[in-house]
């Protein structure tokens, strides 16, 4: 998992550098670099998909289970019934581990409801944090200024 994380960080840095320097290139070099961008973006997507797969597998091995029918989360013999929005937020964050999302991105991608206020998103985040702690799920729901919220797996539960 750390190898995929390193590869993703490297590819993102490479993409940022190419995009930054693209305007300074000659037309022929710009065309070649544009083709490279497509290749690198596809590789990035593949690495992210594989990393997500491994994170899901780790959660399975750690005994985390979400039931979409009953909106129940279970972890090592403990369970908790979630509201619809709590479940959607937790599922979204589990599907995108170690990636940051702003309140607007969460409103649009986790709930498809841009009418919610940022305070409501923060309230649901607080509630999900409480549930994670109560069930002793080895992860943290963190907030980074200007980056947003992320569900981060703890290696040492």
The strands making up the biggest β-sheet line up spatially as 1-2-3
The termini sit apart by 17 Å
Name the CATH superfamily assignment of the largest domain: Winged helix-like DNA-binding domain superfamily/Winged helix DNA-binding domain
| Discrete helix count | 5
The biggest beta sheet reads: 3 strands, antiparallel
The total strand number stands at 5
**Number of separate domains:** 2
Order of helices and strands: HHEEEHHHEE
Low-confidence spans: pLDDT under 50, at least 5 residues? Answer: none
> Which band does the percent of strand residues land in?
15-25%
CATH fold description of the largest domain:
Arc Repressor Mutant, subunit A
Helix fraction? 55-70%
Radius of gyration: 19 Å
The general outline is elongated
Mean pLDDT: 88
**What would CATH call the architecture of the largest domain?**
Orthogonal Bundle
CATH level-1 class of the largest domain: Mainly Alpha
Overall SS class: alpha+beta
Topology:
Layout: H1 2-21, H2 27-61, E1 64-67, E2 72-75, E3 78-81, H3 84-95, H4 103-109, H5 118-134, E4 139-144, E5 148-153
Antiparallel strand pairs: 1-2, 2-3, 4-5
Helix pairs in contact: 1-2, 3-5
Descriptive overview:
It is built from 5 helices and 5 strands; from the N terminus they run ααβββαααββ. By secondary structure, it is an alpha+beta fold. The chain folds into 2 domains: 2-58; 64-153, Winged helix-like DNA-binding domain superfamily/Winged helix DNA-binding domain (Arc Repressor Mutant, subunit A), CATH 1.10.10.10. Strands 1-2-3 form a 3-stranded antiparallel β-sheet. It is elongated. Strand 4 (139-144) and strand 5 form a beta hairpin. It starts with a helix and ends with a strand. Helix 1 (2-21) runs antiparallel to helix 2 and helix 3 crosses helix 5 (118-134). It is 58% helix and 15% strand.
């Amino acid at each position: 998992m750390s190898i995929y994380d390193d590869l993703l960080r490297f590819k993102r840095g490479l993409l940022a550098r190419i995009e930054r320097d693209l305007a300074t290139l000659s037309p022929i070099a710009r065309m070649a670099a544009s083709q490279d961008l497509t290749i690198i973006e596809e590789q990035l997507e593949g690495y992210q998909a594989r990393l997500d797969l491994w994170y899901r597998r780790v959660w399975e091995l750690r005994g985390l289970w979400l039931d979409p029918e009953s909106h129940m989360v279970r972890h090592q013999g403990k369970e908790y019934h979630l509201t619809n929005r709590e479940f959607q937020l937790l599922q979204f964050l589990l599907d995108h581990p170690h990636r940051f999302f702003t309140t607007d991105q969460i409103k649009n991608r986790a709930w498809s409801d841009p009418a919610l206020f940022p305070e409501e998103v923060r309230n649901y985040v607080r509630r999900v944090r409480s549930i994670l702690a109560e069930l002793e799920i080895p992860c943290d729901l963190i907030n980074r200024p200007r980056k947003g919220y992320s569900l981060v797996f703890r290696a040492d539960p």
